[in-house]
Amino acid sequence: MVDLISQYQKIKPAVDEAIGGILETAQFINGPEVKGFQSELEEYLGVKHVIPCANGTDALQISMMALGLKPGDEVITPSFTYIATVEVVALLGLKPVFVEVDDKTFCMDPEKLEEAITDKTKAIVPVHLYGQAVNMEAIMTIADKHGVPVVEDNAQAIGSDYHFSDGRTQKTGTIGAIGCTSFFPSKNLGCYGDGGAICTNDDELAAVMRQIANHGQSKRYYHDRVGVNSRLDSIQAAVLRIKLRELDNYIDARQKVADHYDAFFAQFENIKTPVRDPRSKHVFHQYTMILEGIDRDELHQFLASKEIPSMIYYPVPAHRQEMFKSFNSAATDLPVTDWLTHRVLSLPIHTEMEQEQLDYICNAVAEFMSVNA
Ligand SMILES: *Cc1c(COP(=O)(O)O)cnc(C)c1O
Q1: pLDDT digits over 39-70, tens only?
Q2: 55 CA closest ligand 1 atom index
Q3: How far apart (Å, rounded) are the C-alpha atoms in residues 189 and 34?
């Protein structure tokens, strides 16, 4: 689905030198690379505070801990997402309340959000799925009206812009009270191991989250609150500094792949190519199609027989996972989520895709369609 080896080859001299430098100084933790990356990411995103941490799941957990949520508080999230979004809610003893997504953008449906808000709602966690921004203007309007903080799950959309109707543009992950992201290797900005970050423009929240990420420590060996150990290490930060400089080029490369797929698949009525919401810049973490009247599993297998990977993100929505069997919210009826779950298929998309590979994939899909649709 991605080609991280070819991508590395292009930045190899810079990466090898940076990693070599860290090995020479042995500043593996909290070295200057981490500080450097932090301020460069703050500048890129146009956000006051970036708090690097160990992974995207920790970023979400630390955010919810910092908001002071108490067991039983309700947190609204989509069910159509990667499990991490919802898992931390349950882990902290909070109640996940699943809301429906829009059947075109795959993202949280603002209308359904408003219906799900109760007195107990203490956070809203929209997910910018597959690289497409949620309708943040609508989400923020509803959240502000009810005084509920928004935590953006930006793990799949770093670098995306959101355009407000008044002409303002902001990076995703910097719009809500807190934004969380992941630098897992296959993410749009990925490191060579695990990594994550939290963003906020709120000084107080930033200070609290910094403490939580560091054992609740205010100064060395003085622990004011219960925290966790969640650090981005220097080697990952060094890799991320190099790749952050390329991020906009990486996004362009992904969009070009998507453009090619879109143009080619337009001839097939049964393939719905991903809708691009004009309110945002789609950064194509995934290229996810909706298949109608086509046997998805057969197409998946047909592609596999030609050594073309394709993936179902995600085969089981959160509300149908075993882990939520005991939660009341698991009973929620989410027809759009279920409908999408049975029809989505993602094709390879990455920064190093060659025309020849693209043609091979497109022709394979066409061959399948000529026989099966
Ligand atoms: C990848 C991802 C996460 C978790 O990130 P990790 O770094 O793997 O912990 C959370 N939410 C979404 C939507 C993701 O895609």
Answers
A1: 999 999 999 999 999 999 999 999 999 999 99
A2: 7
A3: 15
Q: How far, in Å, CA of 220 to CA of 101, rounded?
A: 44
Atom of ligand 1 nearest to the CA of 182: 7
- HSE-CB at 234 with a 13 A cutoff on CA atoms is 16
Positions in the chain whose pLDDT score sits under 70: 328-331, 373
Q: Which of 182, 186, 313 to mutate to test the pocket of ligand 1 (most atoms within 8 A of CB)?
A: 182
| Residue-level pLDDT at 353 | 96
Nearest ligand 1 atom to the CA of 81 is 13
pLDDT at position 69: 94
Instruction: Write the residue with the smallest CA distance to atom 3 of ligand 1.
Output: 56
For ligand 1, atom 6, name the residue with the nearest CA. Answer: 56
- Measured in Å, how far apart are the chain's first and last C-alpha atoms? 25
**For the domain bounded by 4-244, which CATH number is listed?**
3.40.640.10
Residue 313: the pLDDT is 97
- State residue 152 phi and psi, 5-degree precision: -80, 130
CA neighbor of 136 nearest in space, from 273, 338, 281: 281
127 CB neighbour count, 10 Å cutoff: 26
Residues 6 or more apart whose CB falls under 8 angstroms from that of 317 comprise: 79, 80, 334, 337, 338, 341
Q: For 247-372, CATH number?
A: 3.90.1150.10
Q: Domain map of the chain by residue range?
A: 4-244, 247-372
Task: Give Cα separations from 131 to 106, 158, 297, 331, 353 (angstroms).
Answer: 10, 8, 24, 28, 18
- Is residue 163 within a helix (H) or strand (E), and if so which, with residue range? strand 161-163
Phi and psi, residue 122, nearest 5°: -120, -10
Q: What residues are in contact with ligand 1 under a 6 Å CB criterion?
A: 55-57, 81-82, 84-85, 127, 153, 155-156, 182, 184, 194, 196
- pLDDT tens figures, 288-333: 999 999 999 999 999 999 999 999 999 999 999 998 877 765 457 8
Q: For the whole model, what pTM was predicted?
A: 0.97
